[in-house]
Amino acid sequence: MTWTNRLRLLGGLVVVLVIVAACTLVFNQRQSAVASTSAAIAAQEYAVGTDYGGTVTEEYVEEGDSVKKGDELLQVQSLQLAQDIRKGVVGADTQTSAYDIGKDGFITFKAEVSGTVAKIDVKTGGYVQAGSELGTIHKEDSLFVTSSFTVSARDYGRIQNGAEVELRLPDDRTITGRVQSVSVQTNDDGQAKTTVDVESPELSASPSSGITSPGTPVDATLHLRDDGTLAGVTDAVRDFSRQIGL
């Protein structure tokens, strides 16, 4: 066998070893990751409610408006409140972080948090029942992702708080989040239907509109704890890839 053939054989063996190693690492990585069955952006919600029934006389905001803490939202006139004021049960000109009470039974509701008006449940001229909600505010800088996964009992045990989750937004942009909380319900097949809340600083700081508005679907990939024999090798290769910018 000539030296040329020997070098070709050696080169072929090296190529085969590289391909096998790469395929092994990819397989190991896929074994430690699971894709969501569904995932969507959500936000912390604050409901605006009333203890008095009455008629909405003013709307100061619309759905989608940005509000600051203390901004006026709605005004309601309540006959029951007016009676309580006259009886001295409630003081006129009472002010709290949630509402201001004026004379003649007028109550002006205010935003208790800064954020975006997600929903207005009643319009001017409409009647609201005591104890009902007038609207909902999505708190600013509170966006997160709620996602669902179907995993085996063994893989459920590999989900950790703080685990990395890759989030792909509708514009194909990928951001990284971390597992904040996990809840599970096991079906008859022994599969764990797992709900995972994911927090991401990059997402929470985004505007709650457009592609990052609550309810927007996303794709989530959850990284499980790697218990395989190649776990250390996979981590080393992944760290090296990040260092060189891959």
Q: What structural class should be given to the helix and strand makeup?
A: alpha+beta
Largest sheet: 7 strands, antiparallel
Instruction: Tell me how many strands there are.
Output: 16
Which shape, going by the Cα principal axes?
Answer: elongated
Instruction: Please give the radius of gyration in angstroms.
Output: 28 Å
Poorly predicted ranges: 22-30, 230-237
On the 0 to 100 scale, the average pLDDT is 84
- Beta content: 35-45%
Give the ordered list of helices and strands: HEEEEEEHEEEEEEHEEEHEH
End-to-end C-alpha gap? 40 Å
Helix share of residues? 10-25%
Helix run count = 5
Biased composition (Low complexity): 204-217
Region (Disordered): 180-220
InterPro entries: MdtA-like_BSH (IPR058625), MFP (IPR050739)
Biased composition (Polar residues): 180-194
Q: What's the structural blueprint in terms of helices and strands?
A:
Layout: H1 3-31, E1 33-35, E2 38-42, E3 45-49, E4 54-59, E5 66-67, E6 72-77, H2 79-87, E7 99-101, E8 106-110, E9 115-120, E10 127-128, E11 133-139, E12 144-151, H3 153-156, E13 164-168, E14 174-186, E15 192-199, H4 201-204, E16 219-223, H5 231-243
Antiparallel strand pairs: 1-16, 2-12, 3-11, 4-6, 4-10, 5-9, 6-8, 7-8, 9-11, 12-15, 13-14, 13-16, 14-15
Structural commentary:
With 246 residues, the chain is an alpha+beta fold. Helices cover 24% and strands 36% of the residues. The protein contains five helices and 16 strands. A seven-stranded antiparallel beta sheet has the order 1-16-13-14-15-12-2. β14 (174-186) and β15 (192-199) form a beta hairpin. The protein is elongated and about 110 Å long. Residues 22-30 and 230-237 have low confidence and may be disordered.
